[in-house]
Design goal:
Order of helices and strands: HHHHHEEEEHHHHHEEHH
Distance between the termini: 78 Å
Protein name: DNA-sulfur modification-associated family protein
Radius of gyration: 25 Å
Organism: Streptomyces nanshensis
Shape: elongated
Number of strands: 6
Strand order of the largest sheet: 1-2
Strand content: 5-15%
Low-confidence stretches: none
Number of helices: 12
């Protein structure tokens, strides 16, 4: 660094100011110099950088930067109860793949919200999380599908231990039964379909406050006859929309279609209930 070269903070002015205040009067904030000295702060140091270049870096990072994919961000959020339980389920379910028995987590896509035909994974983490959140909250869970779920967001009288104790075995059983449909790239892995299954599964929880209570066995019997093939005759108008050639688009998502899927699963004698079962 040349004498007289400017020292410029490209970003993080608030953090820099906070550190100055802490070091000026640590006792005011209930900490000591010894505690502060143990904290490691990562930073980048550039030599010979002009103020103009620093401004450009600030702009590029904060305006032109590519945001982290929502699915990837959620997979890293270990405070989110939906993500925690989704990971537990993926670890619990054991499936046969390439001649080996492996946990489902090996085939869960953590980075993207949608699968492509070439992806080796069979379901996304965000779709599993939607299943968990709707099973936890019922229909109200549709509005929490993209929000962090904290302890305070759990149903009244339910703590994280109880939620895990009931949901992990219940949903693991359902996922194990659905895995052949996942592997076949059928409709079962679509977020809207998993949301509907989650809403139905909510009726098998001890904290379900509305609707008809179900036993796990009754829930399975409702789901078993469902035709998960990606065909318009089963899913058009329920979880997807079909174009003129009959190609299905599940792009509506959990919030738009999850409720209809749940109604169809829980009401086998309704029009949609008969449709998804091919009756």
């Amino acid at each position: 660094m040349l004498p007289g070269s400017p020292v410029v903070a490209i970003d993080g002015e608030t953090q820099v100011t906070a550190w100055h205040e802490l070091y000026d009067a640590p006792e005011r904030f209930g900490v000591t110099f010894e505690q502060l000295s143990r904290v490691r702060v990562p930073f980048e140091l550039y030599f010979g950088l002009s103020v103009q270049d620093a401004r450009q870096i600030f702009y590029d990072r904060n305006v032109e930067g590519v945001p982290v994919a929502k699915n990837l961000a959620m997979s890293m959020d270990q405070r989110d109860i939906g993500t925690q339980i989704a990971h537990r389920i993926a670890e619990t379910v054991k499936i046969e793949h390439d001649g080996k028995v492996v946990p489902l987590t090996k085939l869960v896509q953590n980075r993207k919200r949608q699968l492509t035909k070439t992806d080796p994974e069979v379901v996304t983490l965000s779709a599993l999380r939607v299943l968990v959140v709707t099973a936890l909250h019922g229909r109200a869970g549709l509005n929490l599908s993209s929000s962090t779920v904290h302890d305070a967001d759990l149903p009244d009288g339910v703590d994280i231990e109880q939620a895990e104790r009931e949901l992990v075995p219940l949903l693991s059983q359902l996922i194990a039964g659905l895995f052949p449909h996942f592997a076949a790239r059928n409709a079962a892995s679509a977020p809207a379909v998993l949301a509907g299954i989650g809403i139905a599964a909510h009726q098998a929880t001890s904290w379900a406050a509305t609707g008809t209570r179900l036993s796990p066995e009754e829930l399975v019997r409702l789901i078993e006859p469902v035709r998960f093939e990606r065909e318009a005759r089963y899913w058009d108008g329920v979880a997807a929309s079909a174009n003129a050639s009959g190609t299905l688009n599940f792009g509506g998502g959990a919030k738009d279609s999850g409720g209809r899927v749940a109604d169809a699963i829980l009401g086998p004698d309704t029009d949609h209930g008969r449709r998804i079962r091919g009756w």
